[in-house]
Structures are given as C-alpha cells and as structure tokens.
C-alpha cells in the first residue's frame, strides 16, 4: 500500500470529505493525527499535543489501549464479528448488562445498548413516551442531548435551531444556574434559597404545560458542553420530587459525565439520594474506542417492555465487538480506580483554574468537578467574549493557533474553554497542561486588547 503524504491527504479531504457541525473548510487546517500515546497525540508533521479535552470528552482511557481490551475485541472479531441484536443472544451483551446493573443504583436493572449518545437519548425519549402515553419532554436551555431528531430538539443550546421544525413537544426550562440574573435575592451565596425559587418556577411551568402532557424531564446531571454547570443539590432533588408528584419520568443524561468524569461513577451521585428512572450514557463506556452507548431503565420499565416493543432500533445496536470492548474498558476503569483519580485531581484542577482566573483578564471565571473543568472567556467590556452561537470572534483564530503552538489539542468553543483530559492523567502532566493553556491565554489577553 502506498503511504499518503500530508499534501495528498489534505487534497483528498478538501475534495471529498464533508464536516457536519462546522463548514467543511474548517477541516482544511486541522492537524493530521497519526498516533496516540498516553494522553498525547502525535501529528504527521511531528508536533505532539496533550489531549486537553479527551477529544469530545470521550477518550477517557487515553491512547494506551489496555491489552485486555485489544484481546477481547480481537477475540470477538475472530470468533463472531456480528450478531444482529434482535435475532441472537451473545455473552458480551448479558455480561455487560449485568456489570452495569451492579454499578447503577437499584432499581436501574434493565439495559439496552444503542451506538451513540444521541441514539441513547432518542431511545430514552421513546421509552418515556411509550411508557407514560404522554408526549412532552422537558429539558433545560443550557443543555446538549445529541445531534439526531428528538435528541437535538431536546437540546437547549443553539444547535437545536437546526432541528426545531417538525419536532413538537420539546419544552425548555431556564437552568437553576442562570447567567444574567440570580434566582436568589441574596445572590449566589444563598444557594438553597435560589434553588427553591428555581423549583417554584419549574413547578409553575409544569402546571402551565399540564403534567398530564409531560412524559419526562431530561437533564444532564452536570451540564457538560454548556460549560460544566453544577446545579444546587436542593434543586436536583426537588426536580425528582416534582417528577414523583406529577407522574413524570426522570431521565439523567450521563453521556458526558458518566463513567467517572466528575470524580464519581455517575454525575447524579453528586446529589445525594437522587435516583433517576432512566440513565443514558456513552463516551466513557468504551473510552470512544468503539461506538456504543447505554440506556439503563428501572425494573418497572424493563418489565413493561418485556411484553411490548420500545419501538426503537438500529442494525448496529448492541454490536458484540463494541460490547466486548466496553466490558473490558469498564473493568479497567474499576481496577485502576480512575474514578478515584478524577476525584483526587479535583483540587489540582481547582487550584490551576483559579490561577488562570486570577492571572488573565480574559478569563472571567471557572468551574470544576473532578477532571471536568470550564473557563468563561470575556472581552475588555467585562461581557462574555461572544455568544456560544455566534460566528467566531476575531481573537479566536490566533488563540486556537497559540494553543496548538503550545501543544494543546481540544475543544475551544468561545466563550467556553473546556479542560477535561483523559482520566488516566497524572498530576505533573495535568499541571503541565494548565501551564500550556496559561501561556496561550496570554496571547488571547493581547488579542482582546487587555
Ligand atoms: N448528551 C450529552 C450530555 C453529550 O455531551 C453528548 C455529546 O457530546 C450527547 C448527548 C450526544 O452523544 P453522541 O455525540 O455520542 O451522539
């Protein structure tokens, strides 16, 4: 086989490859990646980057694929590469379902396995609508639930504008952590007071919509791509109570935070006693080595669908090779206590984040939970650098370049800058990553005119 050089790859890409969330020409000057190693990525031109956001917050185990994963995947590919999930039974599906049921709190005992986070939410919405016989799905404005029809209509951020037409029944609440006002008269300090006001507003909204029309509330346990927002505990527990009061299912979207990102196995475990009816997850389930997601449902829902179809499916769901991969990835996560690693590194994340806030006028504030962090970027006027939905500010291009020059690869979505390296990172490497971001932010300060 001939080896393609960079010029040939770029030419074929420009001629034939399309992007999706961005115009295709954005791909013209992204790095060509050839190899991963630990938490680092190597480019064809010899550059080496730290993977600062685990790509799309998914490569949680980094690039040294555990040998047990390679073995399991190879074995499955060799012995039986595919079984359509509706026709046959295979050990990897039963084994992974049993393991996940053990890791989830009771009564979350039923599992289905789509291929992406979007599909997991698509299926969860179908489950909720079919079980309750109701139609509406209540989510938050600051949220992302996926790029397919229902999951994008459920999404609260600007991306839903692509999917709103033709998708009815998706309603949005203001988050308990708003940007332009405080729910509490006493400011953010009085968190519980604010949480109760936000809950009162939510209850009024539920009553105005009609509880008899709402199938489910679907919430990211910790808002991820919207900027690492952690809700007050009283709010999240209160939402669960409202769901119980009005016969609404509670779906926790753990696609980004599930499997340890925030220092606990599940994001909802940060809100004591909160148990969802349905949990969706993906990404960390296979560390993105292969496409697989999960929908966990309560025993009651599982029982309901033993005699009725969910009415959702795809050829690739519960793909045996991906299931074998996921099982070993989860075992690896547990064996090496990587969830604990995320929790132990939280103080370092906080210290380094606080340092960036203190030393860069372009950094307005930062939030951290486990190995999940986000900085808010601002302009000289003290306002957010740009809306998340806006065309890129003129300072974005040189800032992106500065990050790459410092060897930092990852999601830059102004006014947000995420920090979410693989869960296998160690403290010196984490500190080194922040030092690189620190230097790149000096370029942003200048570009913004500070
Ligand atoms: N839900 C959340 C919270 C996410 O962060 C994402 C992806 O970023 C999704 C759903 C969609 O997952 P996928 O991109 O695998 O379809």
UniProtKB/TrEMBL annotation:
The entry's protein name is Aminotransferase class-iii
List, alphabetically, the GO terms of the cellular component aspect: cytosol
What top-level branch of life does the organism fall under?
Eukaryota
Question: What keywords is this UniProt entry annotated with?
Answer: Aminotransferase, Coiled coil, Pyridoxal phosphate, Transferase
Under Gene Ontology molecular function, one entry of this record is: pyridoxal phosphate binding
Q: Which family does it belong to?
A: Belongs to the class-III pyridoxal-phosphate-dependent aminotransferase family.
Is Transcription one of the keywords UniProt gives this record?
no
């Amino acid at each position: 086989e001939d080896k393609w050089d960079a010029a040939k790859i770029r030419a074929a890409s420009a001629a034939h490859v399309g992007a999706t969330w961005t115009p295709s020409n954005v791909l013209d000057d992204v790095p060509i990646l050839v190899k991963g190693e630990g938490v680092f990525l190597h480019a064809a031109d010899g550059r080496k980057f730290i993977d600062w956001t685990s790509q799309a917050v998914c490569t949680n185990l980094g690039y040294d694929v555990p040998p047990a994963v390679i073995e399991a995947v190879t074995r499955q590919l060799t012995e039986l590469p595919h079984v359509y999930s509706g026709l046959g039974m295979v050990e990897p599906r039963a084994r992974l379902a049993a393991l996940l049921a053990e890791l989830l709190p009771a009564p979350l005992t039923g599992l289905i396995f789509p291929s992406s986070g979007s599909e997991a939410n698509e299926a969860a919405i179908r489950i909720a609508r079919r079980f309750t016989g109701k139609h509406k799905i209540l989510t938050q404005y600051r949220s992302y639930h996926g790029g397919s029809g229902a999951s994008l209509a459920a999404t609260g951020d600007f991306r839903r504008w692509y999917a709103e037409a033709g998708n009815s029944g998706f309603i949005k609440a203001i988050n308990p952590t708003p940007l332009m006002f405080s729910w509490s008269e006493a400011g953010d300090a009085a968190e519980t007071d604010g949480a109760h006001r936000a809950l009162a507003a939510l209850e009024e909204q539920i009553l105005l919509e009609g509880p008899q029309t709402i199938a489910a509330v679907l919430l990211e346990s910790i808002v991820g791509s919207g900027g690492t927002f952690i809700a007050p505990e009283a709010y999240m527990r209160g939402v669960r109570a409202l769901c119980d009061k009005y016969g609404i299912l509670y779906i926790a979207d753990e696609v980004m935070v599930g499997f340890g990102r925030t220092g606990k196995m599940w994001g909802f475990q940060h809100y004591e006693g909160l148990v969802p009816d349905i949990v969706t997850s993906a990404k960390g389930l296979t560390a993105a080595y292969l496409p697989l997601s999960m929908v966990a449902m309560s025993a009651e829902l599982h029982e309901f669908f033993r005699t009725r179809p969910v009415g959702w499916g795809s050829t690739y769901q519960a793909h045996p090779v991906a299931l074998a991969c996921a099982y070993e990835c989860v075992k690896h996560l547990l064996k090496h206590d990587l969830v604990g690693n995320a929790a132990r590194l939280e103080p370092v994340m906080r210290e380094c984040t606080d340092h960036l806030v203190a030393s860069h006028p372009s950094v307005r504030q930062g939030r951290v939970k486990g190995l999940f962090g986000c900085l808010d970027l601002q302009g000289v006027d003290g306002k957010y650098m740009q809306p998340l939905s806006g065309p890129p500010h003129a300072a974005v291009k040189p800032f992106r370049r500065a990050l790459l020059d410092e060897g930092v690869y990852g999601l830059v979505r102004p006014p947000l800058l995420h920090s979410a390296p693989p869960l296998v990172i160690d403290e010196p490497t984490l500190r080194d990553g922040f030092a690189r971001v620190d230097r790149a932010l000096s370029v942003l300060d200048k570009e913004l005119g500070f």
